[in-house]
User: Fold AMP deaminase from Aquilegia coerulea.
Amino acid sequence: MVSSSSSSFSPEVSSLQLAMAALIGASFMAISAFYIHKRSVDQILDRLIELGKKSPKTKRIQRVYNDEDEIEVEEEEEEEEEENRDSDDDEEEEIDRILWKQRLSNSRSFDDVRNLRYGLSSSLPNAVLTNYWRSNEEDERKFIDNRSSSFNNLNNLQSNGRDGIMHFYNNAGSRTSQEFLARPLTPKSLVHNGLESVEDFEEEPLLPDEDDNSFLSVPIDSKSMKLHDSIPANYDSTFDSSGVVNDVSAPDKPNGAMVSRSHGDANLLDNQKLDTGPTHIARKDLFDIFMPLKTTLHERPNREEEEVCLLLRQCLELREKYVYRENAAPWMKESVLESNFPMVNNDPFHYDPVEPTEHYFRMEEGVVHVYSNKNATEDLFPVATSTEFFTDMHHLLRISSLGDVRSACHHRLRLLEEKYRLHLLVNADREFLSQKGAPHRDFYNVRKVDTHIHHSACMNQKHLLRFIKSKLRKEPDEVVIFRDGKYLTLKEVFASLDLTGYDLNVDLLDVHADKNTFHRFDKFNLKYNPCGQSRLREIFLKQDNLIQGRFLAEVTKEVLSDLEASKYQMAEYRVSIYGRKQSEWDQLASWFINNGIYSENAVWLIQLPRLYNVYRTMGTATSFQNILDNVFIPLFEVTVDPSSHPQLHVFLKQVVGFDIVDDESKPERRPTKHMPSPSEWTNEFNPAYSYYAYYCYANLYTLNKLRESKGMSTIRFRPHCGEAGEIDHLASAFLLCHNIAHGVNLRKSPVLQYLYYLAQIGLAMTPLSNNSLFVDYHKNPFPTFFQRGLNVSLSTDDPLLIHLTKEPLVEEYSVAAQVWKLTSCDICEIARNSVYQSGFSHAVKLHWLGNKYYKRGSEGNDIHKTNVPSLRIVFRHETWKEEMQYVYSGKVKFPEDIDH
Ligand SMILES: [Zn+2]
Assistant:
């Protein structure tokens, strides 16, 4: 019988109704239980925040190691380190704290606060485990064993949270919400140390999902590997959440790089087939990782963000207005070099007579102007005026101090950092495999350039000591100096110092920076005097002395031959021009030519010490104009008519850059828009950094235009900047310079740091030198800059004063690699950066980096030359493109070639 009446109780109907009722009842209970549970969790999290505000002395961290397929649990007590902060501590951290406080007051969720710092996916902890060995900040990778936690049930919340991610985002609809995924936290006491709360949270370990532990040790499934390895010849591919390959060349392609797969490297694929052991990431979980980030980045920027982006674009356009670029890149005009590069320069000192040109130049208002002939009135190479420059610099400084721009840039930089970490979590193993697969090449035989080294301190202290002793033994009767009205031989000099060759040791030489030099640039400079004696400096470390710098030339040649013996190390030495007299250039050039100073492993930069006030007091200069005349007039003379200074003409072929140096921490007044011209600058005060920078830039700009028009080599402006002092140094360098030495002070300005990232301005950083002068090693921003993708290289600055070993550059890499746990891939990437930053010629760069080094992205990378996996280069390139798309609202067209 078919029951159609509601009054009749057929067994089927009643059981169906009962089932429905039970289902509804159960669902209701489940939902209520969830909300009750969630509320109690919220309360507990609130309580945790409360606890976090107090400062317990210790925290307990349990670390889970994933060793092969086993999981060990280790317990570790950690004493929280009391950090002594410098007065000039990061402004960035200050922003962290402000943001943290804002979030704290606005949000009830602990996760929101925490993720503000982190910006990580909730699924990340699982991936972290696979790379625990790669940890950079160890504490971040310490994991909690849930079993010992009183918050076991939070796991459920986490998995529920995953489903809720999209919903959460859509409702939030704001940029800052993008990474706020529900993620439970450890119940351990939160350490709170005064204002360091945010930093402490950074060290909070993440809680792995116990249920997910199983996938940690899933061996690679050959099928699933195939899925991502079989994405052929398309580095620019990404997966969407369904595993479909998307073409990320479409305008909106966030995180393409995150999931980019290596393709061009046959070795990589082969290796993966051979060695699949260390990769523990299952295919599906990868998608889980990338999905949330991708979703958020598709969000349209709100109005405030659009305004910020507009301002950032203005800054980038300002830089393009100023910075000197050759009309044609070297790879455009010297196509013949690609097939047949002349590696051997037969005679670097050969002088080819060059006919002078009609060009006429005149110094006007501190800047040389060039005319086609004496009667012409049209300025051939007009350059922005000082008023224009100072106006733009102030505009840039104003933008970099706006609160919303600072927050936005800080946020983007944090995002960049986390993207890099995510990249490592997913790809570190693959990068390593890729490096293993590159035959012959390793860190020792990739080219690395010491991008920042002062010539007079280029030898190490042991080398100098040995040299002095040998001279004292072999040439004791050489007349070396004129002091106190009489000529002295080397033997007499040492007798006057009451020293014998036997007494001399490295300690007596006393040229090493020590604790007394920290924040004392003056004392640091005094260390250039061997045994504290300026006369020894004059004899051994000067070019313009009684013996015409013969000793310095000899020791330089020894350094150069050591460099050549190492084959893969290069250096860019800085030699001084002081601007006290015009003959300095000829003197310097003749020192080079007469002593035959040349090496294929070295190029030279000119450094101008910013010492106007000293010369003014001594009476050597009467106005700032004197210095500009002495520095630049000879350069224009030799460019117009090489026969006027033939040696200088030859020497300038080796000169690739111009630098300004001195203690940046000296107080100075920031220039206003209308400054007195250099000829009016007759007072005894030293002009500000940016004043020096502008006038050097403007004269170099005109000089380079002229030299380029005559087919001569150009000289880039690559000053010391951002080692200490005010932020306007970095602002002026952003507008004017190709790249800079130091740049540590970028940590104080998120806006400038982000702009330096976008413009990929090279930073020749020197953490060991900073450690002696301005920034303790463990506070050096180098690792952060590196992670964020700034264009950083490592350099030595002053091996004589700082380094201990025979290979100072390798020492610099070594310390950085040890302290910051850099991988082989990292240091090879840094070495690659250094070659790009350097002023070595296009021809040798082709040889060192590969035939297409000037192409952006993976096309420009040759792992067989650089030992950098294309996976890494693609990640950097795609990430950079995403940032540019963000700033230009998706309307940027990327050039194929690098900037030149
Ligand atoms: Zn330096």
